[in-house]
From TrEMBL:
One of its GO terms (molecular function) is methyltransferase activity. CDD domains: AdoMet_MTases (cd02440). InterPro entries: SAM-dependent_MTases_sf (IPR029063). Keywords: Methyltransferase, Transferase. One of its GO terms (biological process) is methylation. The keyword Cytoplasm does not apply. This is Phospholipid N-methyltransferase.
Length: 205
């Protein structure tokens, strides 16, 4: 899989993202796609050797997908589970190397089994966790844990300004309940708004 420029589809990506965000704010949870700086930290767990399988949740218009694709060696698999039909259609048009799965991250186990993706090296999430209730968060995190197993890694991000909020604190606790290792990055200031990343490994049984 060759490198894909993050700016390849930038103006139409921004238009598609903004249109979806205005149409369904309760699903998208952001007005701007992630910056290449944030994407770089999220994608840092993607193996750059071998033929890994990587799964993205909530890829939107592909700002993080582009950076992941740039790291992946030839012969790798890169699946992207996107709930919003307009985003999924946009990804199919603009990212030919991506296996776009129009579906719900809450069905992750089934979606992966249907595509014979049995061993996943990394899951990278752009999901708007604050828009899910705790049951929904648990459901997805449990399936992410099954997907990555003992060897894989999971990254996701949150906006820095939400840190003191109750929802952000309870999500952080939930990550600690579900994963043996949870690392938190420095703030990525070059993103709108600034954000930080969780890197999680070794799901608890
Ligand atoms: C905050 S945007 C992030 C987009 C992109 N990853 C980025 O960082 O620019 C959240 C994305 O998650 C998608 N999404 C929301 N709920 C989802 C679900 N249950 N399953 C899959 N995708 C979902 C939205 O449609 C949207 O594309």
């Amino acid at each position: 899989m060759g490198p894909v420029s993050a700016d390849l589809a930038a103006p139409s990506a921004r238009r598609t993202f903004l249109a979806a965000a205005l149409r369904r704010p309760g699903r998208i949870g952001a007005v701007y796609p992630s910056s290449p700086h944030l994407a770089g930290v999220l994608a840092s767990v993607v193996p750059s050797q071998g033929t890994p399988t990587v799964v993205e949740l909530g890829p939107g218009t592909g700002s993080v997908s582009a950076v992941i694709a740039g790291r992946l060696p030839a012969g790798s698999r890169h699946l992207a589970v996107e709930l919003d039909p307009s985003m999924a259609a946009f990804l199919r048009r603009t990212r030919p190397g991506l296996e776009v799965v129009a579906g719900d991250a809450k069905e992750l186990t089934t979606l992966l089994a249907d595509r014979a993706a049995h061993r996943v090296d990394a899951v990278i999430s752009g999901l708007p966790w604050s828009l899910f209730d705790e049951g929904g968060q648990r459901e997805i995190l449990g399936q992410v844990g099954v997907a990555i197993g003992a060897e894989g890694a999971f990254t996701t991000f949150a906006y820095t300004h939400t840190l003191p909020m109750r929802g952000a604190r309870s999500f952080r606790r939930l990550l600690g309940d579900r994963f043996d290792e949870v690392l938190i990055s420095r703030t990525v200031w070059r993103n709108v708004p600034p954000a930080y990343i969780y890197v999680c490994r070794r799901p608890k049984g």
